[in-house]
Structure formats: structure tokens, C-alpha cells
């Protein structure tokens, strides 16, 4: 499975961004693709991933981030609204549930999101 993230950039607080995760070699519909992020000096965290059978959003992004999937484009998206400086991080997608975040070793390049005025 190869996943490539894109769509990051420099935005101002309150702006929106949509990140894309395009898969090759597999069908996204056959996997649970989650979004994760890592800020400098912090541990990687899940921002939209499968946990106990449901999509988990941490309180820090709940109501602002939404994951979606387009099987025709073989892509998974993360719509982010009302962005805050604390959302600044490198964002990654991966075909794992939340629980495997600390053991997964096949992270891609990610896409950088910087929220700053």
C-alpha cells in the first residue's frame, strides 16, 4: 500500500484546508485510512482514525475536522476548518486504526500545515 499526502500549506487562523491522501496499489474502500499529525517536539497523535469501531476525533479537533472518502478517486480527505495555530503540524495518512500509531513504521512524507498570522 502506498499513500501520498498533499494539500498542506501556510494559512491564517480561522482558515480552512482540505488534505488529500491518494492510494496506489490498493483500494481505499478496502482499508480503514486514518489521519495523524505530529507537531515539533510532540508525539504523533491521531486526529481522525478508527477506534473501537468508530471514527475517533480528539477533543482538540472535534467539530472542526472531518474525514471523508472518494472511492472513485481512491482518495481519503481531511477537511479542516477554523484552523488554530496549535493545529500546526505535519499531517500523515495511514491504513491503521488509532491503536497502532506507536508501532506503525511505514509513515510517508506527510504534508505540512502551518497556521500563523
In short:
With 117 residues, the chain is mainly β. It contains no helices and 10 strands.
How does this structure look, described?
- A hairpin with a 6-residue loop joins strand 4 and strand 5.
- This protein has a 6-stranded mixed β-sheet with strand order 2-10-9-4-5-6, with no helix packed on it.
- It contains no helices and 10 strands.
List the keywords:
mainly beta; 6-stranded mixed β-sheet; about 120 residues; globular
Mean pLDDT: 94
Question: Strand order, biggest sheet?
Answer: 2-10-9-4-5-6
Q: How much helix, percentage-wise, in residues?
A: under 10%
User: Which H/E pattern describes the elements?
Assistant: EEEEEEEEEE
Content of β-strand: over 45%
Number of helices: 0
C-alpha geometry: globular
Radius of gyration: 13 Å
N-end to C-end Cα span: 37 Å
Oligomer: single chain
Which regions contain 5 or more consecutive residues with pLDDT less than 50?
A: none
**Biggest β-sheet description:** 6 strands, mixed
The number of distinct β-strands equals 10
Structure classification? mainly beta
List the helices and strands and how they pair.
Layout (H helix, E strand, L loop, with lengths): L1 E5 L2 E3 L5 E8 L9 E5 L6 E7 L2 E3 L8 E6 L4 E6 L8 E6 L16 E5 L2
Parallel strand pairs: 2-10
Antiparallel strand pairs: 1-3, 3-8, 4-5, 4-9, 5-6, 7-8, 9-10
Amino acid at each position: 500500500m502506498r499513500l501520498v499526502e498533499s494539500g498542506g500549506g501556510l494559512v491564517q487562523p480561522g482558515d480552512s484546508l482540505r488534505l488529500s491522501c491518494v492510494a496506489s496499489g490498493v483500494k481505499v474502500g478496502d482499508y480503514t485510512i486514518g489521519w495523524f499529525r505530529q507537531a515539533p517536539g510532540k508525539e504523533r497523535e491521531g486526529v481522525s482514525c478508527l477506534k473501537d469501531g468508530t471514527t475517533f476525533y480528539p477533543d482538540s479537533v472535534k467539530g472542526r475536522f472531518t474525514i471523508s472518502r472518494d472511492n472513485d478517486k481512491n482518495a481519503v480527505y481531511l477537511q479542516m476548518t477554523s484552523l488554530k495555530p496549535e493545529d500546526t503540524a505535519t499531517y500523515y495518512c495511514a491504513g491503521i486504526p488509532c491503536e497502532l500509531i506507536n508501532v506503525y513504521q511505514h509513515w510517508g512524507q506527510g504534508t505540512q500545515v502551518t497556521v500563523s498570522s
